[in-house]
């Protein structure tokens, strides 16, 4: 009988050591998951900040594009000035006395027209570049949002794993406590028999 109790006690000690080892493994895993959880949370915040920054940049460029469109609409008046130049030239041929005056006017309008054409070309080039930037920022914003969603999914997965690890740790701890109580009962029973 005594030998049987010693065997049971030895077996319980072995099981207790195994449960303690499992509990330690679970705690190590829990600590690792907590660390990963914090890292994923930080990365998620960074991606959300990047999405917000890119969105603000996109809005700013859209506003600039709208302003450039207004300038381009104003430059349409250049064509009217070109028509006016032609009209002045025709009237100059008809009215000899006003030739010099109209020639000066033609030169001024021609110069202004060329300058306006250059301005239109520069504005169109700037508009094209801004549109490319808007497309690039939009693509980056979509990629950043996709990465943020990916990190959020990983964060939720890690959180779920951490909850499961905590549950296993609680179960292991409960089993260890039961084994300790049973071990004490066996020891008391053995001492009572002696």
TrEMBL record:
Coiled-coil zones: 2-29
Keywords: Coiled coil, Cytoplasm, Motor protein, Muscle protein, Myosin, Thick filament
Pfam families noted in UniProt: Myosin_tail_1
Stated name of the protein: Myosin-7
Subcellular compartments: Cytoplasm, Myofibril
Chain ranges passing through the membrane: none
Organism: Liparis tanakae
Region entry Disordered, spans: 140-164
GO cellular component: myosin complex
Keyword Coiled coil: yes
Record-linked Gene3D superfamilies: 6.10.250.2420
Residue ranges annotated for the Myosin tail domain, each copy included: 75-182
Primary localisation category: cytoplasm
PANTHER family: CINGULIN-LIKE PROTEIN 1-RELATED, MYOSIN-6-LIKE
Domain of life: Eukaryota
